[in-house]
Fold this sequence. Notes:
By secondary structure, the protein is mostly helical. The protein is elongated, with a radius of gyration of 24 Å. The N terminus is likely disordered.
Amino acid sequence: MTYNAKTPPRGWDEANTRGSIHIIPRGWGRVAIDPTLKAGIESDLRRYKRWKARLKEIDDLLADVSIGTGTSDQTVGHSGKINDPTFEMTINRSRLAQERAYLLRRVSRVENALSAMNDEQRQLVRLWYFEEKDRRYIEAEMGIEKSTFYRIRDKALERYGEVAGLIPLVR
């Protein structure tokens, strides 16, 4: 059986989720990102500003916390456990350091993806996900139509997925 652009091979409209590859082929042309993966990428982009703010807060907390000022006097609390302020501060610093490392990885992923995008994609991502502007506002600001907005957005999300290693390089 021969295939043409109007009749793609059977099963090509279903999600291909083998391994870490989450793509949905569309005919013989562009590849659409799996909706679940797309939602995750969009969530990352929407959280980026909050992650950056939390990183700043963690850095401030880590700079303020001084383990050397705690006392090593151990007292027994109501539950019979030993209360050691130095130990508690050490645990808190450790948790903050772990959260900081996690957030740095996430922020770095977004920034790497942004650097791989073209100017149009980067501008759309900034306005849509970071500044949470209305689609019509973005269309007017960029001088584009609705269909172009979605095309640029989809390409930006695809680029993010490629850089993050979530989907294979399409080109």
